[in-house]
Write a structure and sequence with these properties.
Oligomer: homodimer
Low-confidence stretches of chain A: none
Number of domains of chain A: 1
InterPro entries (chains A, B): HTH_HxlR (IPR002577), WH-like_DNA-bd_sf (IPR036388), WH_DNA-bd_sf (IPR036390)
CATH topology of chain A: Arc Repressor Mutant, subunit A
GO molecular function, one term (chains A, B): DNA binding
Pfam family, one (chains A, B): HxlR
Largest interface: A-B, 62 and 62 residues
Number of strands of chain A: 5
Strand content of chain A: 5-15%
Protein name (chains A, B): MarR family transcriptional regulator
Radius of gyration of chain A: 19 Å
CATH superfamily of chain A: Winged helix-like DNA-binding domain superfamily/Winged helix DNA-binding domain
Keywords (chains A, B): DNA-binding, Transcription, Transcription regulation
Mean pLDDT of chain A: 93
Shape of chain A: globular
Helix content of chain A: 55-70%
CATH class of chain A: Mainly Alpha
CATH architecture of chain A: Orthogonal Bundle
Strand order of the largest sheet of chain A: 2-5-4
Chain lengths: ~120, ~120
Amino acid sequence: MADKNERRVFHNNEDCPIRNVIAQIGDKWSMLILFALVDGEDRFNSLKSRIVGISQRMLTQTLRDLEREGYVNRTVFPEVPVRVEYELTEMGREIVKPLYQLVSWAEHHHEKIKQARADYDSMA
Amino acid sequence: MADKNERRVFHNNEDCPIRNVIAQIGDKWSMLILFALVDGEDRFNSLKSRIVGISQRMLTQTLRDLEREGYVNRTVFPEVPVRVEYELTEMGREIVKPLYQLVSWAEHHHEKIKQARADYDSMA
DNA sequence: CGGAATCCTATTCGATACTG
DNA sequence: CAGTATCGAATAGGATTCCG
């Protein structure tokens, strides 16, 4: 057993990096948008059709949040009709790297996880 | 610009590994609990005091979910008073690796993110 | 085309009280 | 000690309508 003194204490507040990262990308759509923009810059409605099921409202809102956190750049081209393009910032391109590790792990263990869930539910 | 044909389409449903992983650990407490258990197995009330701010209800519920997904094992020792210990499963120990990558990235860029947020808020 | 504004629902989460 | 049960507040997110 681990020595009691080695046990860390975790604070769930704004200064906690764990809390911060989960608060930023732990919502329903952020990661999907980040991954979509890995393929290169894209327009609002193109993103909307590529991210199946997202509402206009949530796409706008999530893009604003990602822009605010510094992961996405927004560029307005004052044409008629207006064109708006979104692209990853340097920070955006960086954060997707560890995210890819996570997703590739998840893809690799997808079946095992579904199995664990089924096993658990078949009990009790 | 990226070729249009290279652009992937993302589906936010149960078969999407991205969605799955975020649905599992994207809540308020899961990652903190997983990281707490990295230090070794621990008891319910010990976890409760180490994860500052978590309520009894959410600790129970999140532990049950993590157990269901196969990340945590729960062992009851029928002593008086009862002792219940939680520990990471093999899968639990594995998923924290990519999570650590993410958190360490977040810690490293913590200031940059706060700055981006401040910059964004000072505009408009 | 790319939003903003409004309304409404479902889910999440915390507080509190009780229990084997 | 380690929960369960119940309630209520806050938040997230979807649907719809309108706009420059």
